[in-house]
Design brief:
It is built from four helices and six strands; from the N terminus they run E-E-H-E-E-E-E-H-H-H. By secondary structure, it is an alpha+beta fold.
Length: 179
Amino acid sequence: AGDGAAPGTVVLAENQTAGRGRLGKQWNSPPGKGLYFSMIIHSSLPLSQLARTTLAAGLAVCRAIEQTTGERPGIKWPNDLVFGPRKFGGILAENLGKHEQGGSLVILGIGLNVSTARKEFPADLQERATSLFLHTGKDFSRGEIFTAVLNNLDTVLEKLEQGGFEEILASWRKRDATA
């Protein structure tokens, strides 16, 4: 984005050596086992409402997982994607500041554990983390999940930009894992 990449640009990594989550926590991302990507988005939301992007993205990812796997994940406030008490994904939105056409440029980072085995997680995460494979015992296509996530992001982020936050929030609350 700093070099002029346009909103809508997606950078997909096969693995990360310095993946991170909220509050600077490290994100474990073994090669070929998950989806790790960032997307540049342009938001016209006021700065005071920009955090809504994370909630909308969480809903979009959950819908994509449900469509591609048949499983219904939950969301643990504000950005963890879970099956029960175990985290399988996370979302990180970072505001890069004002866009030349108004609004803000945001980097939306998403990490999903798709086929990660228990032993591939660091020892301190093996009892707290999971993957789609560990949760279901099934292998899923990362490509299909990626496509579904992008499609759902387009739909939900457009709704957010058009003033549909209350509807997004109502759907998000139905997936709230801490309620």
